[in-house]
Automatic annotation (TrEMBL):
Residues 32-121 form the Rhodanese domain. InterPro entries: GlpE_sulfurtransferase, Rhodanese-like_dom, Rhodanese-like_dom_sf. This is Rhodanese domain-containing protein. It comes from Calothrix parasitica NIES-267.
């Protein structure tokens, strides 16, 4: 059976920019285009404290091999690290490993949080949401409050 919405919702073009602004990534998430992966190459402790919602943790050491085991080489990948240098190094490692559509998230997690992008993690779950912020704990509280009204 053919997909009934196949021609209604156009696909996003593949990642072609070496660097991506946080607004572009957020727009793509809001568009509902699931065919991409966000990789966080910071250390595991920092990742656990807070990261972009849905980002996969992968350490720099062995990054190319780890990504190759779980992702198609044609997959769109957005990567960020603890610094712009780490991000650039991770992106280059992925490109050298054969990944075609890799883009560095400019400004990393700080830029993402500055535009109210969704986050998750130990510290993030304890941080109250701002006007445009989104985190799982507050979303669950809102849902529970709304269910009580029904």
């Amino acid at each position: 059976m053919a997909n009934p919405i196949e021609n209604i919702i156009p696909n996003q073009p593949p990642v072609t920019q070496k660097k991506t602004d946080a607004h572009v990534l957020k727009s793509r998430l809001e568009w509902g285009e699931p065919a991409f992966t966000i990789i966080d190459v910071r250390d595991r402790q920092t990742y656990n404290e807070g990261h972009i919602m849905g980002a996969l943790p992968m350490i720099m050491d062995g990054l190319g091999d780890a990504a190759a085991k779980s992702l198609a080489k044609s997959r769109d990948i957005y990567v960020y690290g603890a610094s712009d240098n780490d991000t650039t190094k991770a992106a280059q490692t992925l490109r050298n490993s054969g990944f075609k559509n890799v883009s560095e998230l400019k400004g990393g997690l700080a830029a993402w949080k500055a535009i109210g992008g969704p986050t998750e993690g130990i510290v993030e779950s304890m941080t109250p949401a701002g006007n445009d912020d989104y985190n799982v704990v507050d979303r669950m509280k809102d849902q529970a409050a709304n269910m009580d009204k029904s």
